[in-house]
Structure formats: C-alpha cells, structure tokens
Amino acid sequence: MAPRKRGYSKNGRGDAPQIVVGLAVTRDGFPVRHWVFPGNTVDVTTVAQVKEDLKGWQLTRCLFVGDAGMVSQANFQALAKGGGKYLMAMPMRRGDEVTETVLSRPGRYRKIADNLEVKEVVVGDGERRRRYAVCFNPQEARRQRAHRDERIRELEAELACLADQDEGGHSKRVCALRSSARYGRFLKETKRGLAIDRQAIAELERFDGKFVVHSNDDTLTAEDMALGYKQQQRVEEAWRTMKGGLRMRPVFHWAPHRIHAHIAITVLSLLLERVIEHACQDTWRNVRDDLKRIQLAQLSSPNGTVWQVTEPTAEAANRLKALKIKPPPAILRLD
C-alpha cells in the first residue's frame, strides 16, 4: 500500500500528502522499532498492530504508554488482552467521568517533585474499578493562567474597539472572533452582542496545570503512574530530534520502498545519537561542537601537499575516549 496519503495534518499542511510514523523507544530513549503507516491513518487505530508486532519480542515487561489521542474502549480491550498493561493520559472533556468524578473528587496532593504533585482516585468497586492519578504541575498552572489572562486582556481591548465603532450583529470582525481558536472559547452571545464568558473561564481554571492518567496495572502506585507517563517525554524528545536536527521531513520520495528506507535511515541516525549521548553523558549538540574542532588542513608547497589533522582539544579528546575511538593520526596523507 502506498504510504503517501492525504490526512489530518497536525502542522496545518492539508495541501500536501503525508505519512504517519510510529516509534517504540526504551525508557532511556533508544529506538527499538518503527512503523510507517499511510498518511490517512488515525492514531487511535494503530494500537492493535503495534501490540501484535511486539508480541514476539522477549520483553521482561512491556507497559504501553499513550496520550489522549489513543484513548478508546476498543484500544483498552486490545491492550488488556493476554494480561497486557497500559498507562494512558485521559482526555478531559466536559461531562465525562474524568471531569465530573475524578477531578471533583476531594483529596490532598502528594508532592513527588518540585513541579509535580499527585493524588489517586478510584472509581467503582471490585474488578471493574478504575484507577486514576490526578497530576498537578504548579509551574505549568501559573504559565497557563498568565497566558489566558493575556488573551483575556487582548479580547477586552478588541470588544471595546467593537463597541466604539458600533460593530454589532454579524459583522466580519464579530464572526472572526467567534470562530477564532484563540478567543472563541472565552466569548458568549448576549442581547447587547459579544461578551466575555466568565463561567467558561472559571471552568477552564479547573484544568490549569493538571493531567489525568489511567492504568490497569495495580502494581503501579499513583507516583509510578505519574512518573511513568512523564517518561513519554523521551518519545517526544525523539520526535523533535527526528523532525528537527535529523531533518526527517520533508520526504521527497514517491516509491514506497524509498520512503521506508528514508525513515529507517533516520531512525538509525537517532539510535546513533542516543548511543553517543549515553556514552558521553551529554547532549549530541555539545558532543558535536567539541568534535567539530578537529579539522583537516591542507598545506601546499613546491615539494608537495601535506594533509594534517589539528591536535584534538582536551574536550574533544575526552569525547573520543568515551566513545572508544582512536584519535586520528597527525599526518593523514603526503602527496
């Protein structure tokens, strides 16, 4: 099947065909498996195939960690088959169990890090009970509150401008504000026109700095669930590296085998970066900058040409030693 398909683009590029790439990494960020799906594949439909492909691996323990886009009852059933364990971030929609029961459940948060507090909430009884961990990040809550206050100030100025110019009804500016992803959620329609919806703002404040994770693994404490989901940042970091530094996109290939080869080479490059970072205990950017100081100089004279390598700095020598690579010879070639 040709992987180039038009689908939902998270980058706003609905005009271009795309592919969907899946990646499995260890807790240390090493890629161990990747998948290439057609560009019109929905994330939530990839779980069954990923689990099936990993079934033959000799894994001591496998915990499927997914974000809110993977949540569905069918996925929960597929992951739980054969005693499978999962850890999922739950979407927070108005009127569902998470917002109505879990977030409103009283209880004291336990601090497990400077930027992370957690409390456990159990819904139901017996084997059908559902365990949730409500996680709260005070730093993120302050950031979200400040960002929302800034948008409210912008919106108040915009509404005052509309009132001064007597632009009511369904003018272009009013329609643009109501349909805006930035401002629309903070507005409501009144007899006098648009107004700021203070009730909607108060409802959004409930979610500041919070996320909820759910797991069917009873051996995990609430702290384990919170920290386990935070490890998903390793996957996000891998994606940023592949899309940014390794320049996985754009893909200029058309033939399916060339597209698969392009992704495979990118994943291998990511693996090489992770191996280097693990060996040097530093980021690839810092390692690369140190090694770039080793340069090759061409010295020309009437008697010939000398290709000489500059002497490695102390930092570069330490990098080579950590990577178990012999320093290059001082004289590379004589012509």
From TrEMBL:
InterPro entries listed in its UniProt record: Transposase_11
Coiled coil start-end: none
Pfam families assigned: DDE_Tnp_1 (PF01609)
Superkingdom of the source species: Bacteria
Transposase IS4-like domain mapped to chain residues: 7-272
Protein name: Transposase IS4-like domain-containing protein
A GO molecular-function descriptor: transposase activity
Secretion signal, residue range per the UniProt entry: none
Gene Ontology annotations of biological process type: DNA transposition
Lineage of producing organism: Bacteria, Pseudomonadati, Pseudomonadota, Alphaproteobacteria, Caulobacterales
